[in-house]
Amino acid sequence: MSSPTIKLNNGHEMPQVGFGLWKVDNANCADIVYNAIKVGYRLFDGACDYGNEKEAGEGVHRAIKDGLCTRSDLFIVSKLWNSFHDSERVAPICKKQLEDWGLEYFDLYVIHFPVSLKYVDPSVRYPPGWTDENDKVTPGKATLESTYHAMEDLVDQGLTRSIGVSNYGGALMLDLLRYARIRPATLQIEHHPYLVQQNLVDLCKAEGIAVTAYSSFGPQSFRDLDMELGKNTPLLFDHPTIKKVAEKHGKTPAQVLLRWATQRGLAVIPKSASQDRLKQNLDNTSFDLGEEEVREISGLDKKLRFNDPLNYGIPVPCFA
């Protein structure tokens, strides 16, 4: 089983269905990555902030050693954390992350949030999170433009084949396109029926920028976090509309939620530790929803964002 691909604006092919590494436990990460490759996953979406890049790399290299895939078969994504936005910090941290993965290059390297924070040396704390060495949220001085130009230099140096951004809104995307020497290949956003962001998706489509959806299952991803919004929002898996569509097609609610995104041209990066669910998630492109079903699911939009720093008690109103 394999995923269809999306052709990026630089000519590279990106699998449309990948595996997201957010909240994957370090103890099981290598095995989960290995098993996902065995099932057929070829895109893995990681980040400095997830704290499991070494373990993910172990899973990748075990799979390569066992002949399940080659490096060129894989599409490895990682992200630049907020505390490394200063231009002179970008290449060194990218090289550290490559070393953690055991790779020579990333297929895609992404600015994680449009937020600059004070630098924290990896020898002091890694990953640093949202606070500095004094446990305070301290703004950095880097501009988004200077950080992006440092990202472009990574392409020139062969450290990544593509660059992109995450958690940018329309105004920031329009501004970025004014100064970018290398256009962003992708934008990664929170995207589910409670947060459709259709205007932003349409902007990226018009500009030839691929969109990757994270948290495709909405509140499901946030139930195990200390967040009232995640706990108090009805699960999409249990929503009558999603259940009705799933029953009609003989699919799971998760497959319907993923297909709603992929059928509209987005990439998705779900995760699971279950082999059966890994296969089901990867198989979401084998059926089509009706146009009315797509509209009905899109109509569930509440503009409800879960992955907002403010929801974690972090005073950074980047989506205000």
From TrEMBL:
Gene3D superfamilies linked to this entry: NADP-dependent oxidoreductase domain
Pathway(s) it belongs to: Carbohydrate metabolism; D-xylose degradation
GO molecular function terms attached to this record: oxidoreductase activity
SUPFAM superfamilies registered for this protein in UniProt: NAD(P)-linked oxidoreductase (SSF51430)
Domain NADP-dependent oxidoreductase residues, every copy: 18-301
Keywords, sorted A to Z: Carbohydrate metabolism, NAD, Oxidoreductase, Xylose metabolism
TM ranges: none
The protein's Enzyme Commission number: 1.1.1.307
Superkingdom of origin: Eukaryota
Similarity-based family: Belongs to the aldo/keto reductase family.
PANTHER family according to UniProt: ALDO/KETO REDUCTASE
Name this polypeptide is given: D-xylose reductase
Organism, scientific name: Coniosporium apollinis
Gene that encodes the chain: xyl1_1
